[in-house]
Amino acid sequence: MELNDIIAAFITTNNYELTSITDGLINTTYLLENKDQGKKFILQKINNHVFKQPEVVVNNHLMINEVLRSNNYQFEIIEPIPSLAGKILVKDKNGQPWRMLSFVENSTTFLTAPSLQTAFDAAKTFSYFLNTVNTEQLPAIEDSLPNFLNFEKRVADYKDSLKNAEPYFIENAKTEIEITNQLLSLPDRWIEMEKNNQIPKRIIHADVKISNILFDQNRNPLAVIDLDTMMISTILYDFGTMIQSYTNTTQEDDGTAQNNFNPEMYKVVKEGFLFHLKEKLTPEEYENLDYAAQVAIYIQELRFLTDYLNGSTYYSIMHPEHNLDRTKNQLELLKGLREYLEANGFQSGKV
User: Distance between CA atoms of 228 and 205, rounded to whole angstroms?
Assistant: First the structure.
């Protein structure tokens, strides 16, 4: 079996247990337990359809870890484990890249925030992580996902998908397409701020969903994980996606969700995000946090809808309408956020 060969590149025993971890949308992940040593690791195949330069992913990870260590970072650091030949990446016979990472014992993750306190703690942990990596001299990390935050391209890709989609997809998503089209100008200010250098470039995590925090059994944060998407961009994106992840009262693939925005969660996440970063943010960053939350949800919705119209070639799906369900969920979340912001004096308009 091919997987046996990959495992043999990292450990010297056949006495192991392998368990699939299915939470992630992009990479293929396993928990590998070396029974001889009683040690556990994360074994992962990097999706090189998404991460076209996996060497950049691992090099960025090593650089970020060095910055964390040199700044006395107080949480666990996920370490890449070299193969027996000393390589961080091992290619299988199909050229697919594999890696092994350290495993944090007695840890758990959440797909949705189980309480306001846990959400605050997680946001505060990301705030601390981002404050730590954003040193005066930023590490020279490369972009592992070119154009990932190119919102002009996201909109253009969506328009292309509308032109090229099968009629069935267009008809099935008619309501979602109509709402999406009404909001097409929402990212414009973000795009202009970036073009005009009104917001600073910072190191961002770019995938700050709550499932990328490990907690102990008492729900205390242990580690920030999944550094694959780390890049230099605007920190507004991390705040926005934090809101997109934390304030949703349902799973993001629940297409029947109603009133799935939690305003109390919004308040505590914002407080947690600002805990270590408030002094670092420029006035432009601070003043655009509420706007950024809307844009991040909208762009995620746009990506789900684009993938649905393209026949679901990017995100893993469990059934044909999975991406449409995700789209519906994000639109409902955005509706709730915008109504909340408008009721509290932020002129966001209505979906």
Answer: 8
- The whole-angstrom separation of Cα 254 and Cα 102 is 32
Count of residues in the chain: 351
Classify 145 as helix, strand or coil: coil
**Which residues contact residue 261 at a Cβ distance below 8 angstroms, ignoring those fewer than 6 apart?**
247, 248, 249, 332, 333, 335, 336, 337, 339, 340
Kind of pairing between the strands at 39-45 and 16-21: unpaired
Q: How would you classify residue 200: left for phi > 0, otherwise alpha for psi between -120 and 50, otherwise beta? A: beta
Measured distance CA(203)–CA(205) in Å, rounded: 7
pLDDT score of 345 = 82
* Largest pairwise CA distance in the chain: 62
- What is the DSSP code string of 59-93? HHHHHHHHHHHHTT--SB-PPEE--TTS-S-EE-T
Quote the crossing angle between the two packed helices 116-133 and 236-246, to the nearest 10°: 160
Average confidence (pLDDT) over 281-301: 97
Question: Which DSSP symbol is given to 122?
Answer: H
Residue type, 281: L
Q: What is the DSSP letter of 152?
A: H
Beta carbons of 297 and 245 less than 8 angstroms apart:
no
Q: Say whether pLDDT at 348 is over 60.
A: no
Residue 90 neighbours by CB distance under 10 Å: 22
Q: What are 259's two structure tokens?
A: 């009133």
Stated as kind and residue range, the H or E segment containing 203 is: strand 202-204
Q: What are phi and psi of 337, to 5 degrees?
A: -60, -50
pLDDT band at 50 (very low <50, low <70, confident <90, very high): confident
pTM: 0.91
Q: What angle do CA 63, 26, 214 make, to 5 degrees?
A: 60
Q: Side chain identity at 84, as an amino acid letter?
A: L
8 A C-beta contact, residue 263 and residue 246: no
Q: Which helix (H) or strand (E) holds 17?
A: strand 16-21
The secondary structure of residue 311, as a DSSP letter, is T
Q: Tokens 């969506």 identify what position? A: 158
